[in-house]
Design a protein that fits this description.
The protein has about 110 residues and is mainly α. The chain is about 65% helix and about 0% strand. The protein has one domain: MgtE N-terminal domain-like (MgtE N-terminal fold), CATH 1.25.60.10. Helix 2 packs across helix 3 (about 35-40), helix 3 crosses helix 5 (about 55-65) and helix 6 crosses helix 8.
């Protein structure tokens, strides 16, 4: 399944990942971190936040860590509460601090969630 998903464009891959039942999310482990990251960023309408929220936190954090920091913040601004904090907690201290700093620069999007 992972190989077939990676043959899709990142936009199409994001749509497939969004619809993937949680019990099949283990199959996502075989998709490269880089491809998963590309699925979750783009034109701002990406369903990345919903996909990340459905993943197991350690895997979701690995995907977020592989992203550029500003892209990571764009995804995390759609995730709030304990899950947001848990995802940051799974990152390295430097990644989490950089993410928090960027979130403080652009706090409005998260406040609207």
């Amino acid at each position: 399944m992972a190989q077939r998903i990676e043959e899709l464009t990142p936009t199409d891959g994001a749509q497939v990942l969004q619809k993937l039942p949680r019990e099949l999310s283990a199959d996502v482990r075989n998709i490269s971190i880089e491809y998963r990251g590309k699925c979750f960023v783009g034109d701002g309408s990406s369903p990345g936040g919903r996909v990340i929220a459905r993943m197991e936190p350690p895997e979701a954090s690995m995907v977020l860590s592989a992203m550029e920091p500003d892209d990571r913040v764009d995804i995390l601004e759609h995730i709030s509460g304990p899950l947001h904090d848990q995802l940051l907690g799974e990152m390295t201290a430097a990644e989490a601090a950089e993410t928090r700093d960027l979130e403080h620069i652009h706090p409005t999007a998260r406040a609207e969630s």
